[in-house]
Amino acid sequence: MELQQERPGLSAYLAADAVVDHEHPLVVETAYRLREVAEAPEAYAKGAYEFVRDTIPHSNDAGDLRVTCRASDVLKARTGICYAKAHALVALLRAQGIPAGFCYQHLGVLHGLAALRLPGRDWIRLDPRGNKPGVTARFRLDREQLAFVPDPAAGEYDDPLVRAAPHPATLEALRTAADRRHLDRILPTAL
Fold first, then answer.
1. Predicted confidence (pLDDT) per residue in 21-79, tens digit
2. If DSSP states are collapsed to H, E and C, what string results for the chain?
3. Which residues form the Transglutaminase-like domain (predicted)?
4. How much of the chain, in percent, has pLDDT values that exceed 90?
5. Residue of 85, 48, 90 whose CA lies nearest to 174
6. Count of other CB atoms within 10 angstroms of residue 36
């Protein structure tokens, strides 16, 4: 699938905002620690991806009722659903000057992904939700290896748009949910 940028140029895919708060001291510190062991952009991107995927449990998998949204809050609480984990990954990538954005899969409810663009390469989507039995996502630049493959017969599909900011419907759900159980009931089903 060919991914399409929502906005021309890459500056919007490097910007900080209230959710992708890559100038927050915790995001900066985490990015710096990851950069110390992986200086090349590709190695840093892989390290940031694996850090979010493997050290920040998906709150549903962990039974954690807390709901996080801002990248810095995800890093501090060490929990989040797919949207929040994508916020953290995008912030870590942007903190080191790697253009990154947000993509979604329609799987009955929206599933959040991150996308990045390394020098000389096209956009590639990554799924930082976290692996578990039956769910295996990997950092690959030759082809995507996401956690889920949409089933067109069930009306599921991939949205090809790379957004510069998280979709407002996902932000609204994260911001209004009293806890993860409540969030599970209000997850958006469409963009």
1. 999 999 999 999 999 988 799 999 999 999 999 999 999 999 999 999 999 999 999 99
2. CCCEECCCCCHHHCCCCCCCCCCCHHHHHHHHHHHHHCCCHHHHHHHHHHHHHHHCCEHHHHCCCCCCCCHHHHHHHCCECHHHHHHHHHHHHHHCCCCEEEEEEEECEEEEEEEECCCCCCCEEECCCCCECCECCECCCCCCECCCCCCHHHCCEECCEEECCCCHHHHHHHHHCCCHHHHHHHCCCCC
3. 74-130
4. 97
5. 85
6. 10
Mean pLDDT of 115-119: 96
Angstrom distance (rounded) from CA 59 to CA 79: 5
Contacts of 51 (CB under 8 A, 6+ apart): 30, 34, 92
As a whole number of angstroms, the distance between CA 80 and CA 97 comes to 24
pLDDT tens digits for range 163-189: 999 999 999 999 999 999 999 999 999
Q: Are the beta carbons of 52 and 88 closer than 8 angstroms?
A: yes
Tokens linked to 137: 């996502």
Q: Are 46 and 124 in contact (CB under 8 A)?
A: no
